[in-house]
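Records of this kind hold a single protein each, on a pair of labelled lines. With that in mind, the following record should read easily:
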Amino acid sequence: MQASTKRTKAAEEKRKLILSSARDIFSENGLEGASLRAVAAHAGYTPAALYFHFDSKEALYAEVLHQSLAKLGEYVETALNSVKSHPDRLRTAAMAFFNFYMENSRDLDLGFYLFRGGMKPAGLGQERDIALNTALENALLPISQEAVKLGATEEEANLLMVDCFAHATGLLLLLHTGRIRMFNACASERMEAYVIDQIQQLQ
């Protein structure tokens, strides 16, 4: 193996370790309480080593969140691979979004900046926010696309996408906090019932 190839591979492995450590630190301390120094110590590097890859903790958080949203997008795309009819594709897209965050609660926390930070507005800089919001919207886009194919207007389809997002995150909040039990309900069943009802209204 050539020296340059070895250096590239070593840099990639270092970056992966930094991102893994960052995810742990953010989960423990939130965005506000985390620091690049803490991430560096967790990863076994000096802060200077992190600055070679990321110029701020916001940049690091944005990359961790970007990876999470990329996984979400792949999850939704994979779920849709073998589905043909438009009603089934809409249902599958909405449920895949829900199921990803049902199975990966830390990714939901990450997306809403909930790691010890609570519910409050947060941002990572305009350029990063736009890129991350676009990645999230792309994962949700099949919902509106299939709604249009079922006869919805662009506006109606967009609102359905928003409503599915809101319904999913509300149920996920109840699920991951255990509050769903007080209603003696199943979050995934309630989500699917909601989506099916929306599809029936379009047909």
In short: The mean pLDDT is 90. Residues 98 and 168 are 6 Å apart (CA to CA).
